[in-house]
């Protein structure tokens, strides 16, 4: 036996030595050396990119490694190799690993930043890990790309951090064209998807698995243990468009959208966490379309959205739907989920639109109700009673409710026997984590329910130890909903914050210098006086210009040719307690004509704006997250806020939030506000307009359409407590009745009328 042990040890040493001998570390200093190393690499090689900036490089990493001896492309020091400029990475071959690269300060010249494919050479069993893609977005927001595009089979994106994509196209795309790309079993795991800004139009998903044309093909992709932090690109954070995918143990934190089973069938959504707040109705949960899905062990906290963004949205379908529209929901199981402090969490027949049949073709009418849907063993708990937990937009005759528990009376129109009021109590275990104090083990055992063997935390569900909702007691003392150590890289810190400073200014020259030298979020404080500016002020970072004294407004007088303030990508301007004066030849604020790659913001408070052309003039492709005007005066201008350049009727628009409160408009010659969204699209918030407590006088006399305020196609509009006097127009505004828009307590004197159109006819996009 001793001799056998010695021989076994020698064999292991021989194999280990042989394996180590195959490893060859090759350090490369530039793209030529890198290309040469890739050309000659073999299984077990490690290609090491030297620390520093690699600019304008298109890397094609190919080769044939083995499972035991992969070929690795890695940074000399993880995080110290930055890929910048016009650059990308393509991977082709088998058993390749990319490790520790940092993409920033640039964009891809192709359709992808990282692609698991080189021309016709696809990747199999390849991994990208510990990489960062930060703000690597196209200069033109209308140009489409994907930051990571999967082809082939058994590929993996893990422990990466991706943030800041603002242009057209999903961040992650799984392609399924061709037999070599189906049954792919890709893994997207343990990544941190940092904030994706609002896009102001469709095609802003964070992950999309397949497309309409390949939506009936089997993918088997696993998306697990990822952190989606404020992914606000559009209504679909994840867009499932293929079959047999699994979504497990992900955290969706304050993301303005949902995990959407848009196309495809037989998906599993298990053990995910959806966290909202009390401030937003745009944060969603799970939206269900198609057949055969199992939705189990998910935890929803403070999801306040409705319809498409409700915690659980089960849609109506289109009879005999084409691939790119909405198939009927059938044979879906929703079991063992917890809904804590959510608003009307269960919404059925979402998207029912029979009432719009006069403006939509029959092929767009969603009239096919859900069938053979089982909703069982779920928990609804509200600290403050929610008496309307179920919202129905059609009959709910195809849904079976079994043994669901709610802690208050259900006064919804739908009152199934299977939603039982019970005096459940809960305890707070950690931030946002509330667990029922006692197990309710008398659960419904439906077909195949015996396969639901674990809860949210992986605890066993047994006949003797079970509970309604996502969690079975007892829960570990240190249980948390978000364990940030699981997500993203081990080296990149996305939360570095520089403390802002205040810069005191008293002259025009000092103001110009301060604007150039200020860091992001600095405050420029102006002493009382007059500041004459003969050139445009560039705003390309977050900066505030305020009065040093609230009672004494400094005046900025502009003689610049085109605009007072030129808004650039990432420009975030706050103006407070100042006067802006033009000479009627320039705009107050103007975006760049092109290359507005990222959003800008504009906050105006207690500001007087006078003698300009347009107050705000934007370009196609530009996008403001927020334009806010409060407590201000705008007078003697040709036009007001012109957010009207997205006229392709593709669902795009120029600003997400337009908020105008407690402001006076006097002697505006043409339109005061033109805020436009065209196209029949439901993939976005759809724009938000708040127009409240304002006064409009002597405006609109030169407006050719004789409309004072234009808000065509904007979905969310609050229009109340405004005063309109002596505005020579036919219409003050046209509101969209089907979206719940109505005028509220406005005073109108000699100013036309406010018209409500119930169904607004829009151009079909599909």
TrEMBL record:
Gene3D superfamilies: Single-stranded right-handed beta-helix, Pectin lyase-like. InterPro entries: DUF4957 (IPR032530), PbH1 (IPR006626), Pectin_lyas_fold (IPR012334), Pectin_lyase_fold/virulence (IPR011050), PL-6 (IPR039513). Pfam families: Chondroitinas_B, DUF4957. Residues 193-213 are annotated as: Disordered. Residues 1-21 form the signal peptide. The keyword rRNA-binding does not apply. The keyword Signal applies. Residues 529-639 form the DUF4957 domain. Keywords: Signal. It comes from the Bacteria. CDD domains: PL-6 (cd14251). This is DUF4957 domain-containing protein. It comes from Mariniflexile gromovii.
């Amino acid at each position: 036996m001793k001799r056998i042990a010695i021989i076994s040890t020698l064999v292991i040493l021989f194999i280990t030595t042989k394996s180590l001998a195959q490893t060859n570390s090759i350090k490369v200093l530039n793209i030529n050396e890198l290309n040469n190393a890739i050309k000659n690499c073999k299984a077990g090689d490690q290609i090491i990119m030297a620390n520093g900036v690699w600019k304008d490089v298109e890397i094609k990493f190919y080769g044939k490694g083995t499972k035991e001896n992969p070929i690795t492309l890695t940074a000399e020091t993880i995080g110290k190799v930055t890929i910048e400029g016009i650059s990308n990475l393509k991977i082709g071959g088998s058993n390749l690993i990319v490790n520790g690269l940092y993409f920033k300060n640039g964009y891809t010249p192709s359709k992808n930043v990282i692609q698991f494919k080189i021309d016709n050479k696809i990747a199999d069993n390849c991994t990208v890990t510990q990489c960062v893609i930060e703000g690597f977005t196209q200069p033109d927001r209308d140009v489409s790309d994907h930051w990571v595009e999967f082809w082939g089979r058994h590929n993996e994106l893990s422990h990466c951090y991706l943030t800041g994509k603002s242009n057209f196209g999903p961040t992650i795309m799984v392609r399924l064209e061709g037999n070599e790309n189906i049954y792919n079993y890709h893994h997207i795991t343990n990544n941190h998807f940092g904030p994706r800004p609002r896009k102001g139009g469709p095609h802003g998903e964070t992950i999309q698995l397949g497309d309409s044309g390949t939506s009936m093909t089997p993918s088997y992709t696993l998306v697990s243990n990822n952190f989606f932090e404020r992914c606000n690109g559009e209504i679909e954070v994840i867009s499932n468009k293929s079959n047999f995918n699994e979504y497990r143990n992900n955290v969706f934190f304050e993301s303005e959208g949902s995990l959407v089973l848009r196309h495809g069938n037989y998906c599993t959504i298990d053990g995910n966490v959806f966290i909202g707040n009390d401030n937003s109705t745009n944060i969603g949960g799970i939206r269900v379309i198609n057949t055969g899905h199992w939705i189990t062990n998910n935890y929803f906290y403070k999801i306040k959205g409705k319809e498409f963004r409700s915690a659980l949205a089960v849609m109506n379908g289109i009879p005999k739907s084409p691939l790119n529209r909405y198939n009927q929901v059938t044979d879906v199981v929703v079991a063992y989920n917890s809904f804590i402090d959510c608003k009307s969490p269960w919404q059925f027949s979402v998207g029912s639109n029979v009432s719009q049949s006069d403006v939509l073709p029959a092929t767009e009418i969603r009239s096919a109700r859900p069938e053979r849907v089982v909703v069982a063993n779920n928990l609804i708990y509200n600290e403050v009673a929610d008496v309307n937990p179920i919202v129905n937009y059609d009959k709910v005759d195809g849904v079976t409710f079994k043994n669901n528990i709610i802690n208050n009376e259900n006064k919804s129109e739908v009152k199934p026997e299977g939603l039982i009021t019970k005096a459940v109590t809960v305890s707070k275990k950690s931030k946002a984590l509330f667990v029922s104090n006692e197990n309710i083990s008398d659960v419904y055992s439906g077909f195949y329910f015996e396969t639901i063997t674990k809860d949210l935390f992986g605890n066993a569900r047994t006949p003797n130890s079970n509970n309604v909702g996502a969690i079975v007691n007892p829960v570990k003392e240190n249980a948390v909903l978000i364990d940030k150590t699981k997500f993203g890289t081990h080296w990149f810190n996305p939360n570095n914050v520089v403390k802002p400073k205040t810069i005191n200014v008293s002259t025009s020259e000092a103001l110009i210098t301060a604007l150039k030298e200020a860091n992001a979020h600095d405050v420029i404080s102006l002493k009382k006086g007059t500041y004459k500016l003969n050139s445009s002020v560039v705003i390309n970072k977050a900066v505030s210009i305020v009065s040093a004294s609230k009672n004494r407004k400094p005046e900025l007088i502009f003689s610049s040719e085109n605009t007072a303030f030129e808004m650039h990508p990432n420009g975030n301007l706050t103006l407070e307690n100042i006067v802006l004066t033009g000479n009627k030849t320039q705009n107050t604020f103007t975006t760049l004509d092109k290359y507005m790659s990222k959003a800008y913001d504009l906050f105006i408070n207690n500001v007087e704006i006078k003698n300009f052309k347009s107050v705000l003039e934007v370009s196609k492709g530009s996008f403001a997250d927020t334009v806010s005007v409060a407590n201000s005066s705008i007078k003697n201008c040709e036009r007001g806020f012109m957010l009207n350049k997205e006229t392709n009727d593709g669902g795009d628009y120029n600003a997400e939030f337009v908020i105008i409160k407690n402001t006076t408009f006097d002697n505006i010659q043409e339109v005061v506000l033109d805020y436009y969204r065209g196209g029949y699209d439901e993939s976005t918030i759809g724009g938000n307009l708040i127009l409240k407590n304002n006064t409009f006088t002597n405006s609109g006399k030169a407006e050719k359409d004789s409309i004072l305020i234009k808000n065509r196609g904007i979905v969310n509009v609050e229009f109340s407590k405004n005063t309109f006097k002596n505005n020579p127009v036919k219409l003050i505004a046209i509101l969209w009745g089907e979206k719940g828009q109505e005028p509220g307590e406005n005073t109108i004197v000699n100013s036309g009328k406010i018209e409500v159109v119930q169904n607004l006819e829009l151009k079909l996009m599909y």
